[in-house]
Amino acid sequence: MRVGLGGFAGLSLPDALRLRAASGSGAAARTAVILVWLRGGCSHLDTFDPKPDAPSEFRSPFRAISTRVPGLQLTELLPGLARVADKFTLVRSMTHTGGGHPAGSLQMLTGDIDPQDKRKPVFPDWMTVANLLRRQPAPALPNYIGVNGVTQYDGFGIAGAAYVGEGHGPFLVHGDPNTPDFEVPNIGLGDDAQARRLEGRVDLKTKLDRLDRAVDGAGAMRTLDQFEAQALHLLTRPEARRAFDLGGEPAALRDRYGRNRWGQQLLLARRLVEAGVDIVTSVLDGPLCGRVANWDDHAVNHHIFDALKFRMPVVDQAVSALIEDVYQRGLDRRVLVVVSGEFGRTPRITRVASSGGGVASAPEGVVQPGRDHWPSAFTNLWSGGGIQTGGIIGASDARGEQVAERRVEPGDFLATIYRHLGIDAGHVALPDFQGRPVPILPRGQPIAELRGA
Hints:
The structure is a single chain. The chain is α/β, with parallel strands linked by helices. It has two domains: 2-180 and 246-450, Alkaline Phosphatase, subunit A, CATH 3.40.720; 189-236, no CATH class. It has helices at 2-6, 13-23, 79-83, 101-110, 126-133, 192-215, 220-236, 238-243, 251-257, 261-274, 304-328, 410-420; strands at residues 32-37, 64-66, 73-75, 88-94, 144-147, 152-153, 156-157, 171-173, 279-283, 335-340, 344-345, 350-353, 367-370, 373-374, 378-384, 391-393, 395-396, 403-405, 429-431, 437-439. β19 (429-431) and β20 (437-439) form a beta hairpin. The termini are far apart.
């Protein structure tokens, strides 16, 4: 019981620094990652991997268009990304065995190779692990922030700390950053005197609590201390308030990202990494997706092609603006942008009766087209991070059903992210609830073609 409750939550700062040193992570260059997550799974044939010569029962109705990179085509839904194609690389040969949303997400985010869905993760997600290994003493901002962060899928936990301890999880930002009254609560006291008084009270509380901490063998109080320290820094550091204030951005730049929830989420993500945050996740879901508020474009949920026509202009504008902004600000070697979901959609189009009318869905009972879950071959996008851009890695077959060349698995996906963060994932293990060392990545190698230019 003592080991189980303490686990990794009781890790001291010296312990964390030793693990960081073992992982190869240094403090000299604070690399960062923005993960843009398409919860539910984006259809690769209708976006990043068009198959204009496929049979009609597979082929997207959207025409393929040329991009800035010779030989790289996208569908007509992505003209903004076509314009900046020299600043990203597509991996078109992602594949895994997780056919359900929870299992697919856990494979991509934690490296869990089990194909079965689970209610919550057994292994910690890469964001929490990286947050722990790159922990800084007394940062002004949390190292890991979720701007509409990756947490759940319909009640299933698709990311989480597992045995690492919740104190290393995300600082979550909820709400719509596009609304005029958007504000992150408990960020930055407006008065310096208030901040000094609060710090004095916390110092007194710390002295009074020392006896409790001394007899706390389980480590539960240490996790509480991590939350308290984070809250104190957020309250007393004016730079925290500034980092979350989108009002500090020029109106033209906010327009460029799009005056909507997704555009402003990604603009906020850029502000946060520029301010020193290491890991930012941002899920593109909700009303901008269509009736069921995610990318799960079964025919019972959405008319998939109407749904894509509805949401992709917003995605295209926001993601292309983020990529351009990262490069224009000189952040492109330090900040890696990754766009992915848990899997793709079936290349073969299905036609089933809608379960209900709404945005991008016909009235109940009307037969409409859709695509189902497809982990066998799908695409994700990589930009910045000093990688070699303007290319394609791997390929799916002529119908987009199977990987035809350069198979890439979730372990490779995660190893690549860890490498960018300075973590040698093949040589780091963390103790589980029983104190047994568990590798942070059971298998996988960084994608060699994404090595720095």
